[in-house]
C-alpha cells in the first residue's frame, strides 16, 4: 500500500472528493484505509447489560486505498510517490513532483 497510518492524504473520488485527512487505520488485506473525518456513517447502538447508554454514533467508515493520494505540504496537492534509498540504506517515500521526503 502506498499510504500508512498517520499519513496526511487527500480523497480523489467519492462524496468527500477533495477533503484532506489523516489515516487512522490501514487495512492492507482488504486494500482499504480509514481516514479521519472522511466517509462518515451513522450507527445506532443499543444499550447492553453493563449500563452503557444507547444512542446514535457518527463514525468513519473505510474507503478504498485507490481513492486517496498522499498529500504533499510543499506542492499543496495529492501526489504520486517514488521510493528512494538514502546513503544510510534506509528506504523512504518521496514526492515525484518536488522530491520532498515522507517520514
Written overview of the protein:
This protein starts with 7 loop residues before the first strand and ends with a strand. A hairpin with a 5-residue loop joins strand 9 and strand 10 (91-95). The mean pLDDT is 93. The protein has a single domain (8-47, 56-102), classed as SH3 type barrels (Roll), CATH 2.30.30. With 103 residues, it is mostly beta strands. The chain is built from no helices and eleven strands. The strands form three sheets. It has a six-stranded antiparallel sheet, with no helix packed on it. Strands 9-10-11 form a three-stranded antiparallel sheet, with no helix packed on it. The chain is elongated and about 60 Å long.
What is the fold's blueprint, element by element?
Layout: E1 8-11, E2 20-27, E3 32-35, E4 40-45, E5 55-60, E6 63-64, E7 68-72, E8 77-79, E9 81-85, E10 91-95, E11 101-102
Antiparallel strand pairs: 1-2, 1-7, 2-3, 3-6, 4-5, 7-8, 9-10, 10-11
Keywords: Ribonucleoprotein, Ribosomal protein, RNA-binding, rRNA-binding
Subunit structure: Part of the 50S ribosomal subunit.
Function: One of the proteins that surrounds the polypeptide exit tunnel on the outside of the subunit.
Rg over CA atoms: 17 Å
Count of β-strands: 11
Which class best fits the helix and strand makeup? mainly beta
CATH topology heading: SH3 type barrels
The SSE string, one letter per element, is EEEEEEEEEEE
Short description:
This protein is mainly β and 103 residues long. It has strands at residues 8-11, 20-27, 32-35, 40-45, 55-60, 63-64, 68-72, 77-79, 81-85, 91-95, 101-102.
Amino acid at each position: 500500500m502506498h499510504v500508512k497510518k498517520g499519513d496526511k492524504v487527500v480523497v480523489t473520488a467519492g462524496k468527500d472528493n477533495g477533503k484532506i485527512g489523516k489515516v487512522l487505520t490501514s487495512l492492507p488485506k482488504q486494500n482499504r484505509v480509514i481516514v479521519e473525518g472522511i466517509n462518515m456513517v451513522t450507527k445506532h447502538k443499543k444499550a447492553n447489560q453493563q449500563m452503557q447508554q444507547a444512542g446514535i454514533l457518527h463514525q468513519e467508515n473505510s474507503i478504498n486505498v485507490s481513492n486517496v493520494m498522499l498529500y504533499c505540504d510543499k506542492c499543496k496537492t495529492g501526489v504520486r510517490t517514488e521510493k528512494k534509498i538514502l546513503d544510510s540504506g534506509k528506504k523512504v517515500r518521496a514526492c515525484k513532483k518536488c522530491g520532498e521526503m515522507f517520514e
